[in-house]
Specification:
It is built from 12 helices and 11 strands. The protein is an alpha/beta fold. The radius of gyration is 19 Å and the shape is globular.
Length: about 350
């Protein structure tokens, strides 16, 4: 991130916290709903609306860069199913926007040359091979671990993304061991009660008391020698502990972030579908769509990144330190010239 970008981000955070001024610093973009695997907790792939084309996406990226967006986090579906994804990353790079990607890992090795401007690759890992493949399909674990290794070897920062379900509550030590071996971190969050992207009951959701005990164990580890391998802050973990009966909070994250869905709809996040407008069709600017999203109170938030942003803007000291430590590491050791 360039010095100007860092100054922009700090100013926007201060204005958001003090004056409730909205700036889309971080945009999560569901670039497609198409997916090549069928995870047990997800039905996003079963509802694939029309997608924005490359020209529309470039137009949105141009406006986001003018609005001060510093990071675009691409998710899906599986973003690498888009043949133009490498072009999209390259365009973000030219506009000075950092990028991260959530992926199931199956296509990373075949597309790695197109990912060289990517800052962070997050790959879903549920636990040991037999657990992971039970959730995501035979052979998924080997492809996911291969993706993490090849990205790390190419200098891309990597993260393990773990959905805590009834299948992997005893796999925390295994996951942290893999993170240590890969010099990575793990993001933990609970499975949703309903299927991700649908209304059906999620049969992978964990038993509540066991889940609570595991979060308590992760908090202990976060305060110990394995802290650097756990991406969540303690404050965020304490908030996630209350799943499925989440606290009602004012969504401060919506002051500095939003979600763009695959068809151009803009909303607060995946779980709270309060929307501003649809963009990408020439009828609505990104700025107008973002500004129309109201500040809301919500008790649906179990998304790790949204919880972390809310803890940060709520001035939770450990969340600030957790973010600062990550940024300091990147700024001192990982940022390339011009990034």
């Amino acid at each position: 991130m360039r010095l100007s970008g860092k100054i922009t981000a700090i100013n926007a955070l201060l204005k958001a916290r003090v004056f409730n001024k909205k700036t889309p610093l971080l945009v999560t973009w569901e670039i497609t709903r198409r997916c090549n695997v069928r995870c047990k907790y997800c039905s996003i792939w079963d509802d694939a609306p029309e997608e924005l084309d490359t020209t529309q996406i470039f137009s949105i990226i141009r406006e986001l860069s003018l609005l001060g967006t510093q990071v675009i986090h691409f998710t899906g579906g599986e973003p690498l199913l888009r043949s133009d994804f490498g072009q999209i990353l390259e365009y973000c790079y030219k506009k000075g926007i950092l990028t991260s990607l959530n992926s199931n890992g199956t296509l990373v090795s075949s597309r790695i040359d197109e990912l060289m401007t990517l800052q962070v690759l997050g790959v879903s890992i549920d636990g040991p091979e037999e657990v992971h493949d039970k959730v995501r399909g035979a052979g998924s674990y080997k492809k996911a671990m291969e993706a993490l290794a090849i990205a790390r070897d190419r200098g891309i920062q990597i993260r393990l993304l773990t959905v805590l379900s009834k299948y992997n509550l005893d796999a925390v030590d295994f996951l942290l061991d893999r993170a240590m071996e890969l010099d990575a971190s793990v993001v933990f969050q609970p499975a949703t009660e309903l299927l991700l992207g649908g209304e059906g009951r999620n049969l992978t959701a964990p038993e509540v008391e066991r889940y609570h005990r595991v979060i308590e164990q992760i908090i202990v580890k976060k305060r110990g020698r394995q802290a650097r391998y756990i991406a969540n802050s303690v404050s965020a973990l304490k908030f996630l502990y209350d799943w499925p009966d989440m606290k009602m909070i004012r969504c401060l994250a919506s002051l500095i972030s939003c979600r763009i869905e695959s068809d151009g709809r803009v909303c607060i996040c995946f779980r709270n579908q309060v929307r501003g407008a649809t963009i990408g069709d020439g009828r609505q600017s990104v700025k107008d769509a973002f500004m129309k999203i109201p500040l809301v109170y919500c008790n649906k938030c179990c998304c790790a990144s949204a919880v972390e942003l809310n803890c940060l803007l709520s001035l939770k000291f450990d969340a600030i330190f957790n973010t600062w430590r990550y940024l300091l590491y990147r700024w001192l050791f990982r940022d390339g010239e011009g990034q």
